[in-house]
Write a structure and sequence with these properties.
Elements (H helix, E strand, L loop, with lengths): L9 E6 L19 H16 L6 E5 L2 H14 L4 E5 L7 H9 L5 E6 L3 H10 L1 H7 L9 E7 L4 E8 L2
Parallel strand pairs: 1-4, 2-3, 2-4
Antiparallel strand pairs: 1-5, 5-6
Helix pairs in contact: 1-2, 3-4, 4-5
């Protein structure tokens, strides 16, 4: 596993909001957000926008619950936000998440994805102790990690963790 170096200088890791249970015969991939999830996605997107957390590029899993969450961010950030949907983020390994981040040239990139991979990506960036200290209960749905590169320490640091 290779941890990315800048660019980007800021990484936003957003776990999709709470999803509905699968209906009979429905694929996991096609599960939308539930009512609480839709509300939480709007709240977390608005909180991020209010704090000035604006990515240059949003990359989302193509799973419906991630697209629903990304749509809320798009609405909160304005119509100029570039959004890309990437199939590889669904059922991906942490290496895939980190490779996708590392391949970007933008200053600030947001991934909208799934657990446990989202939590593993945060842990790979900031280290086990910092992750457990910041998120003792794990990475919640609609949780947004703001991770900045500290050039003086040549390391990634968790700057903020925004929850509903």
């Amino acid at each position: 596993m290779t941890v990315p170096l800048p660019p980007p200088n800021r990484i936003y890791l957003l776990r999709h909001a709470e999803a509905a249970w699968a209906e009979p015969g429905q694929r996991d991939f096609d599960r939308p957000l539930n009512e609480k999830g839709f509300g939480d996605a709007e709240i977390i997107a608005d909180k991020a926008a209010d704090k000035g957390y604006r990515p240059d590029l949003l990359i989302s899993s193509t799973a419906l619950r991630c697209r629903d969450t990304a749509d809320a961010v798009y609405r909160a950030m304005g119509l100029t936000l570039e959004v890309r949907y990437v199939d590889a983020l669904y059922n991906a390994t942490v290496d895939t998440y980190l490779e996708i981040i590392d391949a970007q040239d933008e200053a600030a990139v947001m991934l909208v994805g799934h657990n446990p991979t989202m939590e593993q990506a945060l842990e790979a960036l900031i280290g086990h102790e910092a992750m457990v200290s910041a998120l003792p209960g794990g990475f919640p749905t609609a949780g947004l990690a703001v991770v900045d590169y500290d050039a003086s320490a040549t390391a990634w640091r968790l700057t903020d963790f925004v929850v509903v």
